[in-house]
Known about the structure:
By secondary structure, the chain is mainly α. Helices cover 62% and strands 5% of the residues. It has helices spanning 11-23, 33-42, 54-57, 66-86, 96-112, 117-128, 147-153, 155-162, 167-171, 181-193, 200-213, 217-229, 236-246, 249-261, 269-277, 279-292; strands at residues 134-138, 141-145, 173-176. This is BTB domain-containing protein.
Amino acid sequence: MNVEKPGSQSVNRYRMMKKKLTDLGVYEIGMGLEEMTCIAKACDIDMSNDKFSTSATAGSTSSLPKKDRSYSYKLVGAIMKRKLSEHGMYENKMTTEQMKQLLHIKRVKKFESTENTIYDRMSEILKTGKFSDVILDIRGTELKAYKMALSVQSPVFLAMFDNQQMKEAKENRVVIEDIDIEVAKQMLEFVNTNDKPSGIDEYALDLLSVAHKYEMTRLKLLCEKSLVENINVNNAIKCLVHANTYGSETFIKAIVEFMSLNPSLLISDEFKRLKEKDPMFSIKIYADVLESIGLTEL
C-alpha cells in the first residue's frame, strides 16, 4: 500500500483523521490522507465538525455530548459489522465487544501471517530433495534426506551424524532394513514438514514403531492421536499390543477407555493371544477395564 505523506499544511488534518479512525477501529497501518478521507466519507464521518476534532475525541468518545456519543457508538457498530461481514466473520446478534475482539484478532494475525514463511519455504525445498546431504537406503531403495532436518526431529540421528567416527556420518548414508519404503517416505514427510504425514491413518501403527526407534516425540504423539481417532473393535487389541511396546500411558488409557465400552474384547481371540504372550500386562488391562466399568469380575 502506498502511503501518502501529508504536507505541512495537512499534518493536523492527517493526525486528526488518523486519531478518529483509530478510535472507531477502522484505521489500518499504512493508510494515507486520501484513503482516510474516502473511508470517512463512506462512513459519513464529518471530519470538519468540531465533535470530531482531536480535542473532542481524545482518549475516547466519552467526551462527546450524549447525543453525539450515541451516534458515534452506532456508527462504530455499523462499521465493525461491515468490516466483519466483508471477511465472512460476522454472526447475528454479535455485541460490540465481541466485534471489537474479532477485529483485534484479525489485526494481530496480520503480523502472524509471515511467522512460518521461512519454514514453509524450507519445507518445500526439503520435499524436493534438492541440496540433500544424506541418503537413506531403505532395503535397497534410496531416499534423499537432510542431516539437519533428521537431527532436529530425532536425537538418534543427531548423535549418529554428530559423531564423525560413525559410518553414517563418514559415508553420508544410512542403511535401514526394518522399515518398508512407504513407511520411510511417510517418516520423511513428517521430518521435512513437522506436520502429520498424509498417510498417517494408513501407516500409524508402523510409524509409531519408527517414532519409538528414532525417539521422534512429535511423530509418536501424532500417531497415537490418529490411532485413537480411528480405533474400533477390529483394531483395538492390535493398538493395545503396539501401545504396550511403543506407546505412552496416555495412549494405553485411551484404549482401555474404549475397551470398557466394548468389554467383549476381553474374551476375544486376540486378547487371549496377548495373555499368552504377556500375561502380566494383559492382567493389568483386564483389571483396568473392569474397574472402568465398575465391576470386580466379569
